[in-house]
Amino acid sequence: MQLHVSPSMRSLTISSNNGLIDLMKIKVAARHISYRTLFHTILILAFLLPFVFILTAIVTLEGVNKCSSFDCLGRRLGPRLLGRVDDSGQRLVKDFYKILNQVNAEEIPDGIKLPDSFNQLVSEMKNNQYDAKTFALMLRAMMEKLEREIRESKFSELMNKHFAASSIPKGLYCLSLRLTDEYSSNAHARRQLPSPELLPVLSNNSYHHFILSTDNILAASVVVNSAVQSSLRPEKIVFHIITDKKTYAGMHAWFALNPVSPAIVEVKGVHQFDWLTRENVPVLEAVENHHGIRNYYHGNHLAGANLSNTTPRTFASKLQARSPKYISLLNHLRIYLPELFPNLDKVVFLDDDVVIQRDLSPLWEIDLWGKVNGAVETCKGEDEWVMSKHFRNYFNFSHPLIAKHLDPDECAWAYGMNIFDLRTWRKTNIRETYHYWLKENLKSNLTMWKLGTLPPALIAFKGHIHPIDPSWHMLGLGYQTKTNIEKAKRAAVIHYNGQSKPWLQIGFEHLRPFWTKYVNYSNDFVRNCHILEL
Question: Which of 375, 346, 364 is nearest to 457 (CA)?
Answer without folding.
Answer: 375
